[in-house]
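Table S2 (continued). Query chain:
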Amino acid sequence: MRQMRDPAPSRLAYRLNRLMLTPVFRRFLRYGLPILIVAALGAFWASDSARRDAAVDRYAEAKRQIQERPEFMVHMMSVEDASDSVAASVRTLLPMDFPVSSFDLDLEGIRAEVETLDAVRNASVHIRSGGVLSIDVEERMPALIWRTSDGLHLLDETGHNVATVDARSARSDLPLVVGDGAQLAVPEAIALLKTADTMNGRLRGLLRVGERRWDVILDRGQRIMLPEGDALNALRKVIALDSAQDLLARDIAAIDFRNPKRPVLRLTAGAIEAMFNPELTKTKDSPE
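Corresponding output:
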């Protein structure tokens, strides 16, 4: 009698059928297995150093051809909104051999380098149409001259160094400050200088004393000694006294206002001598 074949699947077939019904395994067959095959083929191809080097060379050549296309080349540099001296400093700081590919330019690095110049407050860098590297510069404007032992420095309104000059006459339009630490109190100095502008051109400059307070220097060797705190109001009081009593027109060497509650007048040597020698005063007042 012929034996009938068992229609039930084998254990292996059963397990394969069950595995095929698993979503994770089906996704692996659809995506994972092709990736593994491609990766294996790629690893086999890359195992040959000659093939690797040839591929790198082809990639580098293709990249070079794209980067050196005419539309990506920069042919010149333009420094905008800058004085001739600052523009020359920028060009000296950034020596470039044009033409150069725009892909080889670090615009942020160029901006940071330009801003290292003392005379530059801010800078922006971009590439304009036509292959122009445009550098827009915002310059620091000098507000006063600071005299030190090593020369004359132009400072902006924040006290930042802008440039140096060889002689006071080079910027006679700017007020003068002297003394250690003067650069750290430039905003206060500017306020004092603006207030002292009302003194009919008698102002000669400011002297920083002990890195903590100011003396106002006038012509005829006169000096107004201001306190550490609230120097501006103290100077306004002195100017008010001068307007009311013509104080600074007298033989006064200094007005000591370091203690605003007890100001002190320091007379000149001539005034002191005349005070103790009335005959001298009579001689000066007598007609020839």
